[in-house]
From TrEMBL:
It comes from Leptothoe spongobia TAU-MAC 1115. It is found in: Cell membrane. Keywords: Cell membrane, Kinase, Membrane, Phosphoprotein, Transferase, Transmembrane, Transmembrane helix. Residues 377-432 form the HAMP domain. SMART domains: HAMP (SM00304). It holds the Pfam family HAMP. The keyword Thylakoid does not apply. This is histidine kinase.
Length: 475
């Protein structure tokens, strides 16, 4: 090994030893012993509190999401119950012969009377196998009745009428064949009362769901289909009024993924080149709803086969989003209710509390550090004085005033300094006495000259005295 390498190794070892000595010095070890457990306790307590709060928030959000989804289910149930009851009543009335379906003009009177009641429905219509059609609607205190029959040349003519017999005010004329409409074909195919697929109504700017009820004669042949429409914009209004969370969103979609209702200010359909089309929820303008449905479709291949409830979470822009999905399939429909709530909606106060705790912890740590440093200096000063006194004794220069300040302290260092001072006085007096004996022996040797055996003995005693003095000084 070269001399430069040895020198570098020696320097490194010396530096490491000095650093270790500084670290174990009371000046640093005492503050570290105070600060380390304090900081560790603050950080550990804050972290455990944050994690437990986070878990509690997740449980709370899950509970809120389930309650919101259950409220939506109840609203949908109540929203669809009346049309279902009307469907059952119409079937019974036709079977009992109380409701005649052979003459659409006479049927119009019955339908007009039913739609005038606010407790039933605001629209009711009937189409038959001959292509005839009658429609009655009462909305915003305005009554309307439509006919498609031989008298209208099988074109749909809409009238505004306060009385079904007064058809003087014509609203519009259009081509219409009830037999080609989806609600008619679906009910004719199923042969039982059904809910149609959701579609965009021609008569108004809204998604529509039809309760279609097929009517058969005694021979079992289809005579026609009764229908009543439910306009789904009211579901969106209900979702907007729901208290989910500051930034949470609720939505309803079909198993196909198309949007039905949303708690945001967004229409559940879109217009392309003047044509109204259904809006896939994965294309929603609302980012939270869009990403939620995208993750849902990625995790489940077929929403129609989804179990009753499903929960998951995902990250959106670094924030955790908690989602609860509820499958509505016991009402004759196949809809999915979703509630998505950002965890930050409930974590913000907890995060603020954690920040305040850490700030207070930093303040306590600084105060504790200063106190520990002051305590270390309070201990080190008397130790330095004792070291200084020991060095003075070694050099035979001890000054009792060096320990005067330490002896005046009210703690244990005062007693130690007094004992050290007494010991120093004894040592210094013995050293002085030994020095005087050595001088006396040397004088005797000089006086006796070269007197044989006595001189040799004296020289031996002198060497021994010097050795004892030197050994004492080395200590």
């Amino acid at each position: 090994m070269s001399s430069n390498s040895k020198s570098f190794l020696s320097t490194s070892v010396t530096t490491g030893v000095n650093a270790t000595k500084r670290l174990v010095s009371i000046r640093w070890s005492l503050p570290l012993c105070v600060i380390t457990p304090l900081v560790s306790g603050i950080l550990l307590t804050s972290w455990l509190a944050y994690r437990s709060s986070q878990k509690a928030v997740d449980e709370l959000v899950g509970k809120i999401s389930k309650e919101v989804a259950a409220n939506i289910e109840k609203q949908v149930d109540s929203y669809l119950t009346t049309p279902s009851l009307i469907s059952a009543v119409i079937e019974a009335e036709v079977a009992n012969g109380n409701l005649k379906v052979q003459d659409t003009r006479e049927l119009a009177k019955s339908l007009w009377g039913l739609t005038q009641s606010e407790n039933l429905t605001n629209n009711l219509y009937y189409g038959n196998e001959a292509g005839e059609f009658v429609y009655s609607e009462h909305h915003d205190d305005v009554s309307r009745i439509d006919f498609v029959d031989q008298d209208t040349d099988f074109r749909r003519i809409a009238y505004q009428a306060d009385d079904v017999t007064d058809l003087s005010e014509q609203l519009k004329v259009s081509d219409y064949d009830p037999r080609v409409r989806p609600w008619y074909k679906e009910a004719a195919f199923s042969k039982v009362p059904i809910w149609s697929q959701v579609y965009i109504a021609n008569s108004r700017d809204a998604l529509t769901l039809t309760r279609a009820t097929p009517i058969f004669n005694q021979a079992g042949q289809l005579q026609g289909i009764f229908g009543t429409d439910v306009y789904l914009f009211e579901l969106s209004n209900f979702l907007k009024d729901l208290s989910v969370s500051p930034n949470g969103k609720a939505f309803i979609i079909e198993s196909s993924g198309d949007l039905i209702a949303i708690s945001a200010n967004e229409k559940p359909f879109m217009e392309v080149d003047g044509e109204k089309l259904r809006l896939p929820a994965s294309n929603s303008q609302n980012q939270l709803v869009r990403e939620t449905v995208t993750h849902l479709l990625q995790n489940l291949d077929d929403l129609s086969q989804m179990k009753d409830q499903y929960s998951f979470n995902f990250a959106l822009e670094g924030e955790k989003q908690l989602v609860h999905i509820y499958h509505l399939k016991d009402l004759g429909i196949d809809w999915i209710v979703g509630v998505a709530i950002p965890q930050s909606d409930y974590m913000e106060k907890i995060r603020a509390t954690t920040r305040h705790t850490l700030i207070i912890g930093v303040g306590i740590t600084i105060v504790a550090s200063l106190m520990a440093l002051a305590a270390a200096l309070h201990i080190i000063r008397p130790i330095n004085k004792l070291n200084q006194s020991a060095d003075e004794i070694k050099r035979n220069r001890f000054n009792p005033r060096t320990l005067a300040h330490v002896m005046a302290r009210p703690d244990e260092f005062s007693k130690l300094a007094k004992l050290f001072n007494d010991m120093a006085i004894v040592v210094m007096s013995r050293q002085q006495s030994l020095s005087e004996q050595v001088k006396l022996l040397k004088t005797e040797i000089d006086q006796n000259g070269n007197a044989g055996d006595n001189r040799q003995k004296l020289e031996m005693l002198l060497r021994h005295a010097k050795q004892v003095r030197k050994a004492y000084k080395d200590k």
